[in-house]
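Support request from a user on the community tier.

User writes: "When I paste my structure tokens into the form, the page sometimes reloads and wipes my input. The last time it worked, I copied everything first. Here is what I submitted, just in case something in the input itself triggers the reload:"
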């Protein structure tokens, strides 16, 4: 009976653990809006098609909460931890809001540093909340102020700017490979800093500019001119937290923008890391090495595609995975060679990761070394893995004997020759060079 009770309690604990883990896997999103611009507080709100599609995406993927900018009870944190995984910031009709204490520059930076993702929607006729604008400026994105409109007289129809892939899509970006948005109305542009973390997505055309509404172009009224401005910008922090700013709700037609922002695309993961000695492959991840050991380093990398992990295969030379074996500076820096699709779990049957390896000789220098994999490519989540090991010098009984060193053969041969020559000299001196004194005395 006691065993049965223990079994039941164990099953209950197991089910509770699974329930908690499943609950933890559910991601939460917060949408902040202005009821005067986007009436999400209504039972059946009348929304533009692109905005409605975006809201439906959020509802289907996450447990979504909606709140007014002036709702002072809304907080991004609970007891120091994130309450939400994703944050959506729609335009506002006013710069100042009542909930300043919970939605300011400091809170947004903390939200990003803790791994939260942020999606910001702008517009020319609307304002950005002061805290949001300060946050964007600090990370290097400078949207145009309210009433600054993006204009392109050469690529417009009926006063609406027309976008094309050839003219406006930033070449080589992974986030948005094709442009679905054809019209850009009521939007503005932004200037960006030269930070390596910023990734421009949609740029202004050569003939476009951002100017204050109903005013002539001048140094005081023009925000961007030509291709120096951008209509959509992304940023990925070193902790893989993501931020996307778009200049108009029209760009919501490209769902790749918010899918990337919410970690639904462009996500890669390091499934496993293994390194062994070629002489002792049965000992995984040894901590003590000696100089000139042969090392075999193997990893598995997966990419998140359509809700499942698939093997991530490097297709271009500039995307090569590299291993650095370093102390202060790299002593070895090698491109990892592909092995092929494998399973990320032992004895697994699903080929969900791609294996890469490198085979190299430990350098002739002892000390503390690091197996470092630092993979940063725009549009992909960053991978950083470090394993510290000790490299020792050879022990006294591990050095090669003299006959094992080819350069010493000449000296060994010379020594043997001298010994043999001395032997013959002595023999000659004793038996050949000595005269017969007995015959001389006869």
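"...and here is what came back when it finally went through:"
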């Amino acid at each position: 009976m006691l065993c049965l009770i223990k079994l039941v309690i164990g099953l209950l604990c197991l089910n509770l653990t699974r329930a908690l883990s499943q609950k933890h896997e559910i991601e939460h999103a917060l949408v902040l809006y202005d009821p005067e611009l986007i009436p999400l507080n209504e039972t059946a709100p009348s929304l533009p098609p692109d905005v409605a599609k975006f809201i439906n995406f959020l509802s289907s993927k996450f447990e979504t909460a909606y709140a007014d900018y002036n709702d002072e009870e809304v907080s991004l944190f609970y007891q120091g931890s994130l309450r939400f995984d994703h944050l959506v910031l729609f335009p506002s009709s006013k710069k100042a809001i009542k909930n300043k204490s919970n939605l300011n520059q400091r809170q947004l930076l903390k939200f990003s540093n803790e791994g939260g993702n942020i999606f910001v929607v702008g517009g020319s006729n609307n304002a950005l909340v002061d805290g949001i604008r300060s946050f964007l400026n600090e990370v290097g994105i400078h949207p145009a102020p309210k009433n600054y409109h993006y204009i392109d007289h050469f690529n417009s129809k009926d006063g609406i700017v027309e976008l094309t892939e050839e003219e406006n899509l930033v070449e080589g970006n992974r986030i948005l490979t094709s442009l679905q948005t054809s019209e850009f109305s009521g939007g503005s542009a932004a200037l960006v800093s030269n930070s390596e973390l910023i990734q421009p997505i949609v740029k202004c055309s050569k003939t476009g500019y951002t100017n204050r509404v109903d005013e002539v172009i001048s140094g005081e009224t023009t925000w961007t001119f030509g291709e120096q401005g951008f209509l959509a910008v992304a940023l990925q922090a070193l902790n893989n937290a993501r931020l996307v700013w778009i200049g108009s709700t029209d760009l919501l037609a490209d769902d790749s923008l918010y899918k990337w922002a919410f970690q639904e695309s462009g996500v890669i993961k390091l499934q496993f890391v293994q390194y062994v000695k070629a002489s002792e492959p049965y000992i995984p991840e040894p901590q003590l090495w000696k100089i000139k050991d042969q090392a075999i380093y193997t990893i598995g990398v997966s990419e998140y595609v359509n809700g499942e992990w698939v093997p991530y295969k490097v297709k271009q030379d500039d995307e090569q995975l590299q291993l650095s074996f370093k102390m202060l500076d790299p002593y070895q820096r090698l491109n990892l060679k592909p092995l092929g699709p494998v399973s990320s779990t032992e004895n697994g049957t699903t080929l969900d990761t791609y294996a890469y390896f490198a085979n190299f000789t430990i350098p002739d220098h002892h000390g503390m070394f690091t197996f470092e994999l630092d993979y940063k490519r725009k549009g992909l989540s960053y991978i950083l893995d470090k394993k510290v090991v000790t490299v020792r010098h050879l022990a006294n009984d591990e050095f090669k004997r003299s006959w094992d060193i080819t350069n010493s053969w000449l000296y060994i041969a010379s020594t043997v020759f001298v010994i043999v020559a001395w032997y013959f000299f002595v023999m000659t001196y004793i038996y050949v060079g000595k005269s017969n004194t007995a015959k001389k005395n006869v």
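Agent notes: The reload is a front-end session timeout and is unrelated to the input. Confidence is low (pLDDT under 50) at residues 1-24. The two ends are 125 Å apart (CA to CA). Escalated to web team.
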